[in-house]
Amino acid sequence: MKRIVILILLSFQGLLAQVQFEARVSKNTLGLNERLRVDFTMNDDGDNFTPPSFEGFRIVGGPSQQVSQSWINGRSSFNKSYSYFLLPTQKGTLLIKQAAVEINGQIYKTNPIKINVTAAVEQPRDPNDAPQVSVDDAIHLVAEISKGNPYVNEPITVVYKLFFSYNIGITNWRELNKPKFNDFWSQNIDIKQLVAEEGKYNGEKFRYVVLRKTVLYPQKSGKLEIEPLTLDIDVQVPTNRRNIFGQAQLVEDNKRVSAGSKTINVKPLPESGKPEDFSGAVGRFNFTATPSKTTLKNGESLDLLVSVSGTGNLKLFTLPKPLVPNSLEMYDAVHDEKVQTPLSGMNGKISDSYTIIPQFKGKYPIKPMSFTYFDLATYKYKTITSPEIFITVLDGPTASDNAVAANTGVSKMKVSAGEQFKYIKLKTTLSSVNEKDFLGSTLFYSLMVLPFSLIPLIILVKKKKEAIDGDVYGNRIKMNNKLAKKYLSEAKNQINNKEPFYIALEKAMHNFLKAKLHIETSEMSKDKIQELLISRKATSETVQSFIDLTQNCELARYAPSSSVAIQQDYEKAVLILSDLEKQIS
């Protein structure tokens, strides 16, 4: 009886085994610069594996899948695992949340794991693998501010420069924190292409690229803070090892840099001598009030153009309004701005155009208008007054005395019903036209028949087009092959020559955008590309990868780079263009 029971238990041993699904980590405490390995293992074959979001970490490797199965002494064992390599993005206690998998129709989940992330730690290295330069001393992010104590609405500029040593190469960079300009009116200046230049940092020679340029106008006085820009940068650093050609071998490293927060001490505009009509204009300006004409007949109109031109906060104040007599009907202004914002600040012209229609015969004054601004050259208030304008109406009804009173708004003047048509001529003289009528001519009938004769041709062309459009799969394959050959063949031919390769790869990315988004190179800014691609249904991850690779081409041309990195950039470009081709509509 005992033997029978033992045989039954052995036979159903596989059924009695419990399903296990768990998460394992290589360590529970690590430095900010160390990598963490996470394995999700199961003892039965599962489907629909769903990893956690890995908040607070960046995936630098994986997922890689491993499956093993063995028989030992008649017992079978099965193991399946998914592995990830993670790099923490912040210090503190981070949580790896639950992963899920479906096994035999049931959902299994792992337990959450807490990871303690400390400050960066020094890692032991092989002496030959030690970098020749310290990454901490080789990369610096600087925010250069043109003026630290401006007046309210006085323009200042902040330029973010990334300095890096001649001995290292930058392969990729990401923005962790974007600068915030609270209590400032800000305008970013597009940088169409990153260009490496030579400069000095703390008296030493470095290369640098300008990442951002922003013009700021402080909107209130006091101490205003500019929150920092923070970057996560992947670099390649030469070591003491040499390849067969005697060249230094490169190792991958990572560096996080911040420009630091900046405090701007903004001075209020002086109260002494401030006119009552001051509307906030700061800069150096010219003011004019110009009528299109001053003599006109009844029923005609004129345009009064009130404009301010010069350099200053042109978008941040209002223009004065003209005062006209009630006998002049004035309509609401049409506002126009022709303003540019270079690094020196806003310049150009703003204007309000008023349409004025006289109602009565006579001569009417438009009172002088005053425009006041704070002059940044003398740090004093200046007032410009336009001359008085006289409008002469040659004919029409005569206005009563109260019709000449000033009109302080833009409401329309009412004319009495008995006089509004008094001076319109009601009689006319008709004369015959001896020209031959178009109706009934040969050209008339030809034009009538022509559309009907084109109908068969239109039907044939439409059917042909429908047949071509119907082959969606074939058209997509042809387009993919054509784009891949046209845009990437030149880069592939230059894969062994670093600088020509990155020049060709950058042109390939630009030509792809020209073909798909119908824009020119001069229009290719980071924000413009991102906006157009996302509007065409591309995913944000693919768009960001495209932008990062495009910006990286310029940096890689001037930095040391391995053949492996060049091959990886080529494969990355093929994958990104293929994904965009599938995603954008």
From TrEMBL:
The chain crosses the membrane at residues 438-461. The keyword Ribonucleoprotein does not apply. It comes from the Bacteria. Keywords: Membrane, Signal, Transmembrane, Transmembrane helix. The keyword Oxidoreductase does not apply. Pfam families: BatD. Residues 1-17 form the signal peptide. InterPro entries: BatD (IPR025738). This is Protein BatD. It comes from Flavobacterium luteum.
